[in-house]
Amino acid sequence: MSKDVWRFIDLAEKEPWECRALREVITEPTFTIACLRTYALLGAKTSINDINVAECVVRNIPIVRGIESGGASLYTPSVLNFCVFYPENEANKAVQFMVEACKNLGLLAIPKLGSNDVVINGRKATGRSDDLERRFFSGMYTIDFDYDLADAVLQIPDNKFYDKTHKTVRDWVTSMSKEAGRVISMEEGKQSLLDACETVYDCKLVPGELSVAEETRLAELEEKFHSEEWVNYGKWSDVKEYWRP
Q: What is the pLDDT of residue 162?
């Protein structure tokens, strides 16, 4: 029996906001890996106070708010962001996918009970955000991590760690290279994700591009993703009925 064919789109040339806005655009089975740039990410309902805005301005680091749940996080060129747009009846394979991706690098990862994180040796190696209505999940896959930059940019509230043994980002977050005890290249990390997608979803990934209609819709979302109302407050309406805290 032939395998289902999915698109694979490498979003390396896209801006951070575009990579996030595509969650509102793509509807067919697609696997994306996004953009190797430095930016601070806010979840849909995360306070902007969880990010040091002044530090981001000084360092010229964009702040982007996504449509998924999740807290504040830092992306750099050594952190891969993946997104799986899956078909119907395939909503329960996210954990299996993340564990398989780590296994492809020779690492034993296990899900952390009660969270969307996957841990290696008790520390967060990768995590995800789900959108069951739009049928996708996305996550960060940390090949290496800039702890000093994270300390400068992220202002994670103490209650974020109330149920964790480790009490700071530096202690809690690990990386694939750190756990493997060797330098893992970005290409090796990317391939481990591609292989995991094909294995877990029993599909064949074929390189593709966004359609004209998808590019058009993406352009239409630029106003929203750059607006003060969305970035600062997570609220957007084309009739400008905003709620502010």
A: 47
